[in-house]
């Protein structure tokens, strides 16, 4: 498809929702792939000890490899651990290993424990148009590090009965981080995932979410699709695995909406990380 507009400043986007299985990782890797395939330079930071984003991008993440854990503990720089994603030019990944499971505890006693990722991201010299951070399903120190390092929060919401339940805690945490640690933080985007247009419930939930977050919900909803769930087992995004599938097309469309939204926005004054 045609190129997507590139942002005039680096967009840092944390993909968060403390519920597991709502499509955080799937959304992170597929939006990132879609943007990279349309001309952007994109970095995915895997901040989940499970390393699912690393797996989906075909990046080895067994216990001994240099990973985001080493960066958070300041043993390595972010540049040292970043790896190119095979088959998608312009896409890069900072992998997570299972070591990261201990970081939640190990960080507690360290100085600047909430801003370790922020420091690492801001000392990156390679230019990226987008940095996505894939969060674990919790609101602990790892997620707080992501909220401090980024400006935008993207919340994937699964179109099911309890969709909005539990979001209150995430939104309160966003406000807390905004108030104390990162004044530029804001919820910028909501993406409806695993949408089944044939059910009344899904369309009701979608309506409810749109009413609750006016202007933030992307028009494109991601359908429930077997191709999307198959892709990670091949170390691929659905966009490379089956580019003509409804799942791939919807993630490309959602990425285009995000790119266009960003093209209309100006960097905020305090942003000292402009380029391009
Ligand atoms: P999270 O990162 O929030 O825990 P995942 O992205 O890992 O969620 O998704 C949870 C599971 O649902 C995974 O097995 C994934 O492959 C599957 N999945 C995600 N989105 C879709 C979709 N649109 N259609 C079908 N399966 C999906
Ligand atoms: Mg995940």
TrEMBL record:
Top-level lineage group: Bacteria
General function of this protein: May play a role in septum formation.
Domain AAA: residue ranges: 11-186
Protein name: Cobyrinic acid ac-diamide synthase
Record-stated family: Belongs to the ParA family.
Taxonomy of the source species: Bacteria, Bacillati, Actinomycetota, Actinomycetes, Kitasatosporales
């Amino acid at each position: 498809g045609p190129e997507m507009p590139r942002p005039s400043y680096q967009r840092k986007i944390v993909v968060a929702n403390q519920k597991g299985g709502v499509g955080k990782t799937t959304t992170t890797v597929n939006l990132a792939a879609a943007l990279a395939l349309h001309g952007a330079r994109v970095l995915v930071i895997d901040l989940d000890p499970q390393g699912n984003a690393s797996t989906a991008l075909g990046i080895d993440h067994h216990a001994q490899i240099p990973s985001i854990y080493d960066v958070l503990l300041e043993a390595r720089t972010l540049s040292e651990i970043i790896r190119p994603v095979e088959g998608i030019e312009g896409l890069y990944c900072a992998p997570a290993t299972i070591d990261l499971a201990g970081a939640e505890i190990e960080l507690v006693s360290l100085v600047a424990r909430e801003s370790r990722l922020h420091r690492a991201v801001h000392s990156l010299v390679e230019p990226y148009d987008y940095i996505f951070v894939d969060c674990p399903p919790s609101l602990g120190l790892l997620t707080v590090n992501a909220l401090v390092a980024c400006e935008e929060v993207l919340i994937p919401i699964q179109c099911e009965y309890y969709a909005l339940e539990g979001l209150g805690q995430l939104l309160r945490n966003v406000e807390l981080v905004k108030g104390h640690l990162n004044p530029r933080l804001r919820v910028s985007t909501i993406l409806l995932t695993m949408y089944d247009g044939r059910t009344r419930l899904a369309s009701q939930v979608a309506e409810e979410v749109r009413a609750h977050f006016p202007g933030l919900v992307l028009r494109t909803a991601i359908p429930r699709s077997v191709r999307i769930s198959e892709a990670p087992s091949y170390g691929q995004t659905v966009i490379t695995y089956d580019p003509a599938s409804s799942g791939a097309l919807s993630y490309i469309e959602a990425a285009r909406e995000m790119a266009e939204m960003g093209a209309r926005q100006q960097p905020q004054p305090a942003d000292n990380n402009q380029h391009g």
